[in-house]
Structures are given as C-alpha cells and as structure tokens.
Amino acid sequence: MLSATRSGQLEDWHVQEFFKLSRVVEYSDGISPTQLFPLKSQVELCNKSHLDVLPGEILTYTAMESRGFNMYGKRISADDAERLLERLVAPREISLKVDAQKSSTKAY
Description:
Elements: H1 2-7, H2 12-20, H3 40-53, E1 59-62, H4 78-87, E2 93-96
Antiparallel strand pairs: 1-2
C-alpha cells in the first residue's frame, strides 16, 4: 500500500483500507502525538485551536530582546535588529494556559 501511495497508483481497495483506519483516537495520558507543519502560520493556527478548547485564563509572555553586535563588533541598529527578529522562527509572544501543549517551530 505504501509503494502504491508513493507512486500514485492507488487502487480502490487501497483507498478502502486507508479509510478503515480513520477514527478519533483517545489518548489515556491526554498527550497528543507531535504534528508537523511546513509553515509557521500553520503551527500558530494549530496552537491557537488547541489553546481555545482548554479551560482557564490565557497568560501571554513577551520576549525581551536587546540589540547585539555584528561580526565587526559594531552595535546593530534598531532597524536592522527589527528586520533580523522578523526572520526568526520563534514568536515574539507566546500565550499559554495550564496543561497546554505547544508545537515548537524549531526542533531541539
């Protein structure tokens, strides 16, 4: 079945077998498996949808950045620092609730 899927040559019985696997899975420990997304926006949407169903107060934490120095030892300008921060994968703010699981935008 995997070879047929990879080559795009699925037959009807393949599709029927895959549909048999479709179900809602309940995890006894309450921890969902890792989901992978190609886009940062998809990670943020997934995190928000999971956070919205949890009870409790949302706590938002904001990163505290400070400008550093370039490879020549000169202080990075505020504009350059802002441009660099925009390219980072990590969010500037993170919102959490008790028992929240967050998807990370970087593998550690």
